[in-house]
């Protein structure tokens, strides 16, 4: 995976977030403040602008720049969380021009660690960690088993989507939704839903490469 692969990922993620903007906002309307779709759409638009203004030369630079733009542009919980995820990933990639599947796994593990350190959420707290963690786990396993990158990312995407769906019966213990207590039960977590979109975008980028 080279720099253009990671740029393709960002482009796919931005397109998906824009297409699902209203859906993400509806999910956030049920258990939050109805801004998640708008937040991420604004954030990814800023990311694409930043990448166009200052074209990065390495995969790591793509992701560090993306994360920085998200932190700059998105208020609320998700901007710093996704921003940290992309920045940590980019840092883990260093200045390598080409990333192996094992390198991608290590970087995503670093991203997950960054998110959990910043937000303090564990799996089961009904946050984006509930999609992120199983996706990273599934990807690590598939890569270790020698799966083709596309297939490994398909498995990871499925795990993220299942993780997002599995947030429905949970009661939120972190973030704004936790203020609702038991009334947060019965709704999908918006951040888990957007994390599944971002993994699906990664899968599509691999299909183009
Ligand atoms: P805000 O809650 O500030 O309005 P968003 O609506 O953009 O921000 O994002 C809400 C999402 O952020 C939630 O659905 C959840 O997935 C995620 N989130 C909130 N707090 C945390 C946390 N502490 N750790 C991980 N994810 C979190
Ligand atoms: Mg919100």
From TrEMBL:
Domain of life where this protein originates: Bacteria
The record's section on PROSITE patterns has: DHAL (PS51480)
Instruction: State the organism of origin.
Output: Planotetraspora silvatica
One molecular function GO term is: glycerone kinase activity
* GO annotation terms (biological process): glycerol catabolic process
> By what name is this protein known?
Dihydroxyacetone kinase subunit L
Q: A Pfam family name for this chain?
A: Dak2
Q: Does the keyword Transcription apply?
A: no
Query: Which Gene3D superfamilies does the record match to this protein?
Result: 1.25.40.340
Ranges of residues in domain DhaL: 4-204
Keyword field = Kinase, Transferase
Q: Which InterPro entries match?
A: DhaK_L_YcgS (IPR012737), DhaL_dom (IPR004007), DhaL_dom_sf (IPR036117), Dihydroxyacetone_Kinase (IPR050861)
An example of a Gene Ontology cellular component annotation for this protein is: cytosol
């Amino acid at each position: 995976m080279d720099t253009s692969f990671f740029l393709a990922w960002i482009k796919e993620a931005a397109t998906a977030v824009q297409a699902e903007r209203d859906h993400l906002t509806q999910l956030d309307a049920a258990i939050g403040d109805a801004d998640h779709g708008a937040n991420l759409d604004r954030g990814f638009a800023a990311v694409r602008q930043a990448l166009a203004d200052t074209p990065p030369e390495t995969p790591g630079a793509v992701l560090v720049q993306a994360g920085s733009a998200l932190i700059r542009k998105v208020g609320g919980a998700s901007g710093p969380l996704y921003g940290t995820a992309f920045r940590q990933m980019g840092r883990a990639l260093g200045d390598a021009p080409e990333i192996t599947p094992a390198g991608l796994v290590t970087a995503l593990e670093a991203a997950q660690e960054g998110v959990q350190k910043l937000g303090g959420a564990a799996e089961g707290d009904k946050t984006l960690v509930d999609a992120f963690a199983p996706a990273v786990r599934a990807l690590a396993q598939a890569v270790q088993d020698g799966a083709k990158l596309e297939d490994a990312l398909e498995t990871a995407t499925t795990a993220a989507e299942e993780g997002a769906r599995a947030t429905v019966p949970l009661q939120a213990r972190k973030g704004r939704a936790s203020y609702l207590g038991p009334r947060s039960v019965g709704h999908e977590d918006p951040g888990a839903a957007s994390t599944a979109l971002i993994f699906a975008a990664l899968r599509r980028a691999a299909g183009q490469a």
